[in-house]
Design a protein that fits this description.
Elements (H helix, E strand, L loop, with lengths): L17 E6 L12 H11 L3 E6 L14 E4 L18 H14 L4 E5 L6 H11 L3 E5 L1 E2 L8 H17 L2 E4 L2 H9 L7 E3 L17 H6 L8 E5 L8 H14 L4 E5 L5 H10 L7 E4 L7 H6 L3 E4 L9 E2 L4 H6 L4 E4 L3 H9 L2 E4 L4 H13 L1 H16 L4 H18 L2 H42 L4 E7 L5 E7 L3 H4 L4 H12 L7 H7 L3 E3 L25 E3 L12 H13 L3 H16 L15 H13 L1
Parallel strand pairs: 1-2, 1-4, 2-3, 4-5, 5-7, 7-8, 9-10, 9-12, 10-11, 12-14, 14-15, 18-19
Antiparallel strand pairs: 6-13, 16-17
Helix pairs in contact: 1-14, 2-3, 3-4, 7-12, 15-18
């Protein structure tokens, strides 16, 4: 089976997810450089999920064996050269358009933000907080500081970065060095996963004979063993050291050629340095960035592919993922310096490790390696095995998909919104309880005097089950005394008025203030009932009991115990501020039209614990 026909493993995640990936820099297959985002989107879609890719430009190529990926363009004046994004990034306008597009057109279960750039990150953070969708940062590189920015612009960038990091649930990085940076920002190791870019073996198979146009322009590259570097030209690469190795190589193996392919801010400086070393167009040639579809032709002609570990520069750091193109081409890798790339190549004997900061020793090591044809062949085979196995694009993309599924399972959007609703709900409870106590205090005192005038204590304290089954003392006016004892009819009428108008519940605002109750929730029931709850009925204890509830506004006086518990369970499963406001409104309307929203009179329904005790006793017979 060819690499292009590999089918991603079936997803063990049973639910179909809506995953939104935001990448302003996404490139087309014909563009320059690697496209991690497109591979991720295609694999997630092939796993059965719905993927929406929001980009500043470009498009996603849909292969014949993949599910379609919905593409949404959020316009921004972006361009990109191979390995060298321009410093001009989308600004406030892009962030606003991005937020509006997310809000009006998407309902993500997981939100993936591809960094860099920083622009748009604040909009994504705000949307994640408001929507409740878990935010995952995909960080194949760290953005370098953009030159020319003033203090205010840098402060805004820092603010946006902090907002993004604070909101993010998980971070996917492309190298251990980038992982270390995020750990330094406060992320726990368990919230960071390492996913390299992987090797696109399908791009390099079958072998492509498209190199004629390149080598017609640079015929000197065909006159000896060719060492190719294809990647960004910037200070995060030790390319000056490669030029020094090339200078030393002139005396050791003058037929060895070096091709430096790519673009970047240091291109002119590197050209000038090569000229000073007297290697420019003698055994070193600079080749402009080539479209990715033409890269296999160049690497297939190479004897060795150079891999240079990245180092941080101006705050920026990338994963040096160009090593995977060499592996996919089946070429041995020459690694310069230390890093995870050296460990990868040494562990599999897929190339040669060159010493750093010693150009002559590195040149001699490389020349000796190139003279051993059998060693070169075996190293290339080992590299290709890595590319088609552990480090294949398909496998890496599948691991990313599984990571996103795990995030969706552990940080479900509904549960996030539920937790936030509980926070807002508690804040609303406190505000309303304080205001209600202040406003109704004269009325409470008046009702208490009425009780005293009737000849009995005004307040009753009863044990009730609260949140998570914790018992508390419910404070209320003791209107049930008229049903327990023989009292004059006017006292009975007084108690009925209190229950019908719900004035008997005014003292319960103190329970709300103390945190035992909420404005809205299942009505508190005697603590001893808890022993008889079924598993489904136990869910009513997941929230604080309420002053009013869904059962109270849905025919409370005509309900059976089973119907009341069904209403309570439905409320717990659909908890939200909108539903609470609806219940409060219906409660207010019910009071205004004289509907009885009070407690059940003693004797209207038998005690729940007695019913269940008799039922369980009958089952045991």
């Amino acid at each position: 089976m060819s690499p292009s026909k590999l089918t991603p493993p079936a997803s063990p995640f049973s639910s179909k997810l809506n995953i939104v990936i935001i990448d302003p820099w996404v490139t087309s297959p014909q563009g320059h450089g690697r496209d991690r985002t497109a591979a991720m989107a295609q694999n997630i879609a092939a796993g059965g999920h719905t993927v929406t890719l929001m980009a500043g430009r470009g498009r996603v190529h849909d292969g014949a064996n993949t599910s379609p990926v919905q593409m949404m363009l959020t316009l921004a004046p972006l361009s990109r050269r191979f390995g060298h994004p321009p410093s001009a990034a989308p600004g406030f306008g892009y962030g606003l358009k991005l937020f509006l597009s997310l809000w009006s057109k998407t309902k993500p279960d997981v939100l993936v933000w591809r960094t860099p750039p920083r622009a748009g990150s604040f909009a994504v953070s705000c949307f994640a907080k408001l929507s409740g969708a878990p935010l995952v940062i995909d960080a194949p590189e760290l953005a370098a500081d953009e030159p020319g920015k003033n203090i205010l612009q840098r402060a805004i960038d820092a603010l946006c970065s902090r907002a993004l990091l604070k909101t993010a649930t998980h971070v996917m990085v492309a190298s251990p060095e980038i992982k270390a940076w995020y750990e330094a920002q406060g992320f726990v190791p368990g919230a960071i996963s390492v996913h390299s870019d992987g090797s696109d073996a399908a791009l390099f198979s079958p072998t492509r004979d498209l190199y004629k146009t390149i080598f017609e322009k640079y015929p000197q590259l065909t006159r000896g063993p060719l060492c190719v570097y294809a990647g960004g030209l910037h200070r995060g690469r030790r390319l000056a050291e490669v030029l020094e190795i090339a200078a030393a190589m002139q005396a050791i193996a003058p037929d060895v050629r070096f091709a430096i392919v790519g673009d970047g801010p240091d291109r002119l400086d590197l050209n000038a340095y090569a000229a000073r070393l007297d290697v420019l167009e003698k055994n070193v040639w600079f080749v402009p960035a080539v479209p990715r579809t033409e890269l296999p032709a160049l690497l297939n002609a190479a004897a060795v592919v150079l891999a240079i570990p990245a180092q941080q520069h101006d705050g920026g750091l990338d994963a040096a993922s160009h090593i995977f193109d060499g592996l996919a081409a089946g070429k041995p890798i020459a690694v310069l310096g230390e890093g995870w790339q050296r460990e990868l190549i040494d562990g599999r004997q897929a190339g040669v490790a060159l010493p750093g900061n010693n150009a002559e020793a590195a040149a001699r090591e490389l020349a000796d390696f190139l003279r051993d044809d059998d060693l070169v062949r075996r190293a290339g085979e080992q590299g290709l095995a890595l590319a088609r196995g552990k480090h294949s694009t398909e496998r890496i993309a599948s691991e990313i998909r599984l990571t996103l599924e795990k995030v969706a399972a552990t940080h479900a959007r509904r549960e996030v919104l539920r937790r936030r609703s509980m926070i807002v709900k508690r804040a609303l409870d406190l505000v309303v309880a304080i205001v209600a106590i202040v406003i109704t205090l004269p009325l409470v005192l008046g009702v208490a005097l009425g009780f005293l005038g009737a000849g009995w204590a005004p307040f009753a304290s009863r044990m009730r089950s609260g949140r998570r089954g914790k018992s508390f003392r419910l404070l209320t006016f003791d209107t049930t005394k008229t049903e327990r004892e023989i009292v004059p009819s006017w006292r009975t009428d007084f108690a009925k008025i209190l229950r019908r108008s719900a004035l008997d519940r005014l003292p319960e605002f103190f329970n709300i203030l103390l945190g035992d109750m909420s404005l809205v929730g299942p009505r508190p029931l005697p603590a001893e009932y808890g022993a008889y709850y079924t598993e489904a009925q136990q869910h009513r204890l997941d929230v604080r009991p309420g002053l009013t509830g869904w059962a109270q506004v849905n025919g409370r006086q005509g309900l059976t115990w089973d119907e009341m518990f069904a209403h309570d369970t439905w409320y717990v499963n659909n908890l939200g501020i909108g539903l609470d406001l609806k219940i409060l409104w219906k409660t207010l309307i019910g009071l205004l039209i004289g509907r009885d929203l009070g407690s059940l009179p003693a004797g209207q329904l038998p005690r729940f614990d007695e019913i269940e005790a008799r039922r369980q006793g009958a089952e045991d017979v």
